[in-house]
Amino acid sequence: MYAVIETGGKQYRVQEGDVVTVEKLCADAGSKIEFDKVLVLGEGTDIKVGAPYIDGVKVFGNVIENGKGKKVIIFKYKAKKDYRKKQGHRQPYTMVEITGIGTDKPAKKAVAPKEEIAPVIAEETKEVKTAKTPSIKAMKKDELIAFAKENNIVIDEKATKPVIIEAIEAALKE
């Protein structure tokens, strides 16, 4: 079954399981959203068309992420007048996964990207705990220094990022 929905002044043909990039919506990543402006609902020859919308039908989805699109360059130029103006624009968007048409279905469990489980040894109790930590290689230098301080790992704060990463990885393996 498919539906045609309207959001952000545009129309989208969606099916259950589709991932659609729409104009920016006021919703956080991971939240549920419902589209009540359904123009067409159908499957095969059984099609309902609204005037302008179908009453009582909603399309449900989960917000995957909010972001910005590719940069578009606007360059204005007037010959022989020494006038040049360069401007860039990145259009904000919201990526939505359609979970149901008419009725909402439970969402699949999402796995947070770039996360791994690393053993953290507490010196006071000498126990091994598992904690969710972001990938060490994806961290910035100041985040690495803070991570090392939280886990009581001795590092040189003035060292380069690769040296700090090696020191943290060596300490976590022990």
List keywords for this structure.
174 residues; mainly beta; 2 domains; 4-stranded antiparallel β-sheet; 49% strand
Poorly predicted runs:
110-131
Tally of discrete structural domains: 2
Number of helical elements: 2
Structural class: mainly beta
The residue fraction in helices comes out at: 10-25%
**If you average the pLDDT, what whole number results?**
84
Q: Report the strand count.
A: 10
Strand order of the largest sheet: 2-1-5-6
**Biggest sheet: strands, sense, closure?**
4 strands, antiparallel
Rg, rounded, reads 25 Å
- Topology pattern, helix = H, strand = E: EEEEEEEEEEHH
Q: Give the distance, in angstroms, between the N- and C-terminal Cα atoms.
A: 55 Å
Proportion of strand residues: over 45%
Query: What is the general shape?
Result: flat
Could you describe the 3D structure shown?
With 174 residues, the chain is mainly beta. It has two helices and ten strands; from the N terminus they run E-E-E-E-E-E-E-E-E-E-H-H. The protein folds into two domains: 2-101, no CATH class; 115-173, no CATH class. The protein has helices at residues 141-150, 161-173; strands at residues 2-7, 10-15, 19-23, 32-35, 38-43, 46-49, 59-78, 83-101, 115-122, 127-134. The protein has a four-stranded antiparallel β-sheet, with no helix packed on it. Strand 1 (2-7) and strand 2 form a beta hairpin. The chain is flat and about 70 Å long. It starts with a strand and ends with a helix. The model is unreliable at 110-131 (pLDDT under 50).
